[in-house]
Design brief:
It contains nine helices and no strands. The protein is mainly α. Residues 16-76 form the HTH tetR-type domain. This is TetR family transcriptional regulator.
């Protein structure tokens, strides 16, 4: 799962647009069919371009999947930022984003499976950078939301909070709990004084 160096640097604006159309089609396929269903044929069936065009722009399907997952995370974090920005108080911003985070996976359980499936595949391919980019993106958002709340070491708390959220996603599939019940756990994790 590595990028083809210099490929996009030589593309015209029209070609870059076509490449983005392919990435968007891959996002659609990933969301509906998962990693195993994300084939060049499936992407061509959903998107406006042929299999040949997809192979032209992405010689390696793993590069395309990396780009599609990165686009998914970019959109997801942007949506969480918009949701949190609707609130005035910093703790309201944090909890609105967290509730939306969990609601996304509750409403679309395949999204959670896709994340974990992708991480396993990237780990097996010894491509941890792709996983790190995703985790860093979410961690940075959580650290930004925690910083105005005067918590000790917002970045460390953000990493712990993300671990909690990922576990909560799995637990919600087994035994659903309302966000109000999870909020107490989150408050303890974020605001407890250690040391």
């Amino acid at each position: 799962m590595t990028a083809v160096p210099g490929r996009s640097a030589r593309l015209s604006p029209n070609q870059l647009q076509k490449q983005e159309q392919i990435v968007e089609a891959a996002r659609v396929v990933l969301a509906s069919d998962g990693l195993a269903g994300c084939t060049v044929r499936a992407i061509a069936d959903v998107g406006p371009l042929t299999k040949s065009a997809i192979h032209y722009y992405f010689a390696d399907i793993d590069v395309l999947i990396d780009r599609a997952m990165a686009a998914h995370i970019t959109t997801f974090t942007a949506d969480l930022r918009k949701i949190s920005a609707k609130h005035d108080h910093p703790d309201e911003r944090l909890f609105a984003a967290l509730e939306a985070f969990l609601a996304e996976f509750s409403g679309r359980p395949n999204a959670a499976f896709l994340w974990f499936e992708y991480w396993i595949a990237a780990g097996r391919a010894q491509h941890p950078q792709a996983i790190d980019v995703m985790l860093t993106s979410i961690t940075e958002l959580l650290a930004e939301l925690l910083a105005p709340l005067d918590v000790e070491d917002p970045r460390a708390r953000a990493r712990a909070l993300l671990s909690y959220l990922l576990g909560a996603i799995v637990q919600q599939r087994v035994r659903r709990r309302p966000f109000a019940a999870l909020r107490g756990d989150i408050e303890a994790l974020c605001f407890a004084n250690y040391g």
